[in-house]
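Hi R.,

Here's the chain you asked about this morning:
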Amino acid sequence: MPGPPPAPRVSNLGKATRSGGLSLEEIVNDPDAEIKDSESARLFLDQLYTIQGEPTTPEHISHALFYISQAKGVSNTLRSAIRATAYLVRDLATSEIAESITKAVSERLETSVVAAISPQVAKILSASENLTKINEDAETLSSHITEKDMKTFIATQNRAIPPTPYRDALASTPPNPNQIPLGKRLSPEYAKAHAAIKERQILIDPGSNHHLLNSTTSRETIIDHIKQALESVDRIDGPDMQLKSIAQLRNNGILIELNSQEAAAWIKAAPNKETFLARLGGEAAIKDRQYNIVIPFLPITTDTERPETLRDMESANNIPQGSISQIKWIKDPAKRA
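And the predicted structure, written out as tokens:
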């Protein structure tokens, strides 16, 4: 490992003859010296080498020493001694500045850290006090609970809960607000609204082999296809026609709702119906809403296979032609006694 760098070579380096036998105290208190204290020293330096009014710091003293080393008549030995002293004083100034900065920063950091962690420390102390209080309360409570009390508590917890009768369970079930209780009639307003919706609906039976109206086609595609079919029968002299809703049934049927009864009747009319179904394509058909009714006391001699029988029933009862789609016996005639 290399040693420290060699010191600079200075010629005629040695002690002065006059100071060779004097102590430091005698030199400082020399009665013949013009500079006897720090005040006279500052006055002297302010006249030649320092700025008057500035504080005397190691940095300023090092500057003054560098200026003094450049004075005329100073020997090389003395100049080297002055410069060496100036460098050491400047290092002292640097150390002092660093120390002051470190002290100031440390004080600020300490203040900031204390201010930051004080609330957390307070919370920790508060939580610790609460835990201590809880532990004390628990110990006090446990000291008052006897073994008999504990056995009684366990027996109470293990006691079987009696079963609830099925009747009580049904009675305690909250009713469904959307469910209509059995035996109650619908309100007239609800019945009218429901009937109006049915009048606006059209049931489409697309057939099992339809290329678009099937369960594999997306809902958006089906809606677009039906809208195009509606546009094919939209006429200037016809009613305003808008598709309000569409529902695909489990049997592949499609139930659409239009904006008015007139629009639904327009689609069901003979010329428009064929155009609409042709635009849908395939074997699509429009199914009318049908209702099953029971006719009591119908003569057993009635021929239900003849279409004229249905038309005669419609005429005799003032029913529009085509309203009765089919008729059949409840009991098979072949099984009559």
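Strands lie at 201-205, 243-248, 254-258, 285-287.

Let me know if you need anything else.
M.
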